């Protein structure tokens, strides 16, 4: 008979063996706020005009860079959480 394996709860795993998600977002609420912040950047870039003067173009590009950084933090956190869920499901099916 195959032994069923499950992952322990995060609270049961030694801290040094866990992803340090708090270094990216301290709380789930911070993650949610960043997601809302990211959606605020999208409409600012919906308008494109190749003849913009330098100053507005610099402001637009700076906003894109800030939005990209927020997106990257959201993505990293989401991928780490997804990996944990996938591993849990995989172990539960064995």
Question: What do these coordinates show?
Answer:
The chain is an all-alpha fold. It has a domain at 25-38 and 67-88. It contains two helices and no strands. The protein has helices spanning 28-41, 54-93. It is elongated, with a radius of gyration of 20 Å.
Residue runs with pLDDT of under 50 for 5 or more positions: none
- Assembly state: single chain
**Secondary structure: number of strands:** 0
What is the straight-line distance between the termini?
11 Å
* Proportion of beta-strand residues: under 5%
Report the order of strands and helices.
Answer: HH
Short description:
This protein has helices spanning 28-41, 54-93. By secondary structure, the protein is an all-alpha fold.
SSE blueprint:
Layout: H1 28-41, H2 54-93
Keywords:
single chain, 94 residues, mainly alpha, 2 helices, elongated
């Amino acid at each position: 008979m195959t032994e069923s394996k499950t992952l322990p709860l995060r609270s049961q795993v030694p801290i040094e063996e866990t992803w340090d998600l708090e270094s990216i977002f301290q709380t789930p609420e911070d993650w949610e706020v960043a997601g809302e912040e990211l959606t605020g950047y999208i409409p600012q870039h919906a308008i494109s005009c190749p003849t913009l003067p330098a100053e507005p173009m610099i402001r637009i590009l700076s906003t894109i860079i800030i939005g990209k950084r927020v997106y990257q933090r959201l993505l990293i956190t989401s991928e780490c959480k997804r990996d944990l869920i996938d591993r849990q499901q995989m172990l539960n099916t064995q």
